[in-house]
Amino acid sequence: MFKIQAKSFISIITSKLILKMSKTFLKGGTNFPGKVALKIDKNILNTISKNYKIILITGTNGKTTTTNMIYNIISSTNQEVITNSSGANMFSGITACFVDNYKFANNNVKYAIIEVDEANVKYITEYISPEIICITNLFRDQLDRYGEVYTTLEKILCGIKKSPKSLLVLNGDESLLGNIDVPNKKIYYGFNCAVDDTKSVNLNADAKFCKFCKCNYKYNFVTYNHLGDYYCNNCGYKRPKLDYHIDKIVEQSKSGSIVEINNNKISINQPGTYNIYNALCAYTVSRVLNIENNVIKHSLQKQNSSFGRQETINIEDKKLKIILVKNPAGYDQAINAISLDEDKINLAFMLNDNYADGRDVSWIWDVNFEKLTSLNVDKIMISGIRLYDLAIRLKIAGFNIDKFHMCKEFESLLSEIIKCDEKTVYLLATYTAMIDFRKLLYNRKYIKKLW
Amino acid sequence: MELNICHLYPDLLNVYGDMGNILILKHRAEKRNIKVNIINISINDTFEPEKYDIVFFGGGQDFEQSIVSSDLLKNKVSFIKEYIESGKVFLCICGGYQLLGKYYTTPAGEKLKGLGILDIYTEAGNKRFIGNTIIYNKEFDETYVGFENHSGKTYIGNLKPLGRVIIGYGNNGEDGYEGCIYKNTFCTYFHGSLLSKNPELADRLLKLALQNKYDEVALSTLDDSLEMMAKEFIIKRET
Fold it and tell me: Which is nearest to B180 in space by CA: B109, B112, B106, B117?
């Protein structure tokens, strides 16, 4: 046992006690215990993260799923590993995670797979030097909170600069991440084959203009939004060479994808192109950690979907698939994944405008809801604080308003879901709407755990 | 009947869901059997004032806005001035609004030249004005709701505002005005999208455009119950 200061000891014990109480009484995670720990000892994170090999995952979309995939892969090798929940990806929440897992007499080397909010990377790397930092992608996201994509990138880079020895695992198809000016060693992953025949970015995509010379990028192919094999004809900036790559998409269906990564056939049991990226990032990190190909393969084909990421909940005879939506890029990908379902489906939407959802709901106008009108949709249910705004958006997208079931209360949404004729209900919900609806499902005993 | 709607820099100024305004204008016109053509005009394209009946100019990120600003001054300023002065319908939001003025100062303190078409200017503010906003236009007797998110403080001189602020900051957080109107040019900081909860304003723009083109203004009434409930919700919650 290494020596720790009295201050750190008190900090850990107090925080652990609060954690214990909040788990018992509040039945869910909170940032509060971490805040207390930091108040007593501001360097506590440095003390309690010793003996961990830390992998940070940040970026706009895919953090939670990628974190879970890496966690599951490492777990299956029987090594000790911890992770934080998606609701605790800020400085204090991450501190709480380490406090919770801290044992005074355990010096084994362990892994910590930590999802971190983009703006919080710099607070973490102040105290921790991660083995690996992954950046998944950068899209416009809740502009009232984060600001613009270039600002978000600057914030992440500011964190990376504090940890020059961390290996960077970067999405190579993300034009904002090529040639970034940091001394760290970099590994890039991406697609070496097209998903479909899209060769130009949608008008409404982000970051379409060269970050060096401001001319518009050309693409050999686009995978989604502004991701893809890009190059600039004017200054010659282009996608870096990929170290880990999708060589072939064998199959994409509503139950998942089969792909070839560096000539290895991999099944991913979560649908959609965005989940191929998540799996590819997890694969890359695992290979860097020298985990065998078979182990990764086995783990990726039996992933449990994480909280609000196409997690399926049985409600009477209905299968409710909940998808968390936070920004246009993620929403569009969710819509694409739903579009893989060829059966008759029901759609439910929840739009809230609390701080964690983004107080400005304007972003729904940048989502391609028009695409949903071509599906075989039976019933449409609309709920959440800003249900009327969403209803207007769907009306303008081309849905008939006679089909709308406006559910002001979550109770009525639940009963409308139970009354559906068709078995499958997709629920697209913003963060606090999903949390609140889950509380109702928990109280009605449709789910066993809140988090 | 037919309306040509020009969308200025849809590929560059597109971050705050302002695209919705185009979708809404198109929807409301088509419900009245008016054919709508959308014409996207961007970098190096020629702006042809005689071709359009409504022009929409939205807001973007600083990086993209700097690209737009130099293209406007190089290729389009005199044509846009001609369009606006002729009394055609022009809707400007946020960054577009700022660019029409004489100048705007960036948060870094850099003073950038605007198009100088409107006698207005924008200074950098040290506080970001973020939140739901409600304004009242006395002349039209209409209440508009939206969401503002800007740090620039705009001063409109002798121009008419789009409305008087009831809730929120408006142009500069000082004089109680939001937006401005010059001839048939309407400027505002409202996102939301603006027209999603303000169908009266959407129809006002359509009517003005039809009047300019066909001298007639008969627009049938549409079912705006969802729009009105969305507006009422904001008014009730925020006041």
Answer: B117
CA dihedral angle for residue B49, residue B51, residue B56, residue B61, rounded to 10 degrees = -70
Q: Does B229 touch chain A (CB under 8 A)?
A: yes
- Interface contact flag, A361 B226, Cβ < 8 Å: no
Same-domain pairing of A269 and A326: no
To the nearest whole number, what is the mean pLDDT of chain B?
95
Are both A280 and A336 inside the same structural domain?
no
Is A392's CB within 8 Å of B230's CB? yes
Position of tokens 């060589």?
A247
| pLDDT reported for residue A120 | 94
- Give the model confidence (pLDDT) of A155-201 as tens digits: 999 999 999 999 999 999 999 999 999 999 999 999 999 999 888 88
CATH of the domain at A185: 3.40.1190.10
| Domain match, A274 and A389 both | no
Residue type, A401: I
Mean pLDDT (chain A, rounded): 91
Structural domains in chain A (count): 2
Number of A/B CB contacts below 8 angstroms equals 96
pLDDT for A202: 85
- B94 φ/ψ sector (left φ>0, alpha ψ -120 to 50, else beta): left
Per residue in B17-54, pLDDT (tens digit) is 999 999 999 999 999 999 999 999 999 999 999 999 99
Rounded to 5°, the CA angle A199-A204-A210 comes to 65
> Quick check: B177 and B165 in contact, CB under 8 A?
yes
Say what the ipTM of the complex is. Answer: 0.97
CATH number for the domain spanning A322: value is: 3.90.190.20
Residue A161 is given by DSSP the state T
- The CATH number given to whatever domain includes residue B34 is 3.40.50.880
Q: Which of A281, A300, A319 is the last residue of a domain?
A: A300
Please give the tally of structural domains in chain B. 1
* Domain enclosing residue A253, as ranges: 6-189+233-300
Cα A115 from Cα A121, distance rounded (Å): 10
Q: Is A360 a catalytic residue?
A: yes
Residues B201 and B192 sit within 8 Å (Cβ to Cβ): no
Q: Active site residue: A144, A196, A343, A360, which one?
A: A360
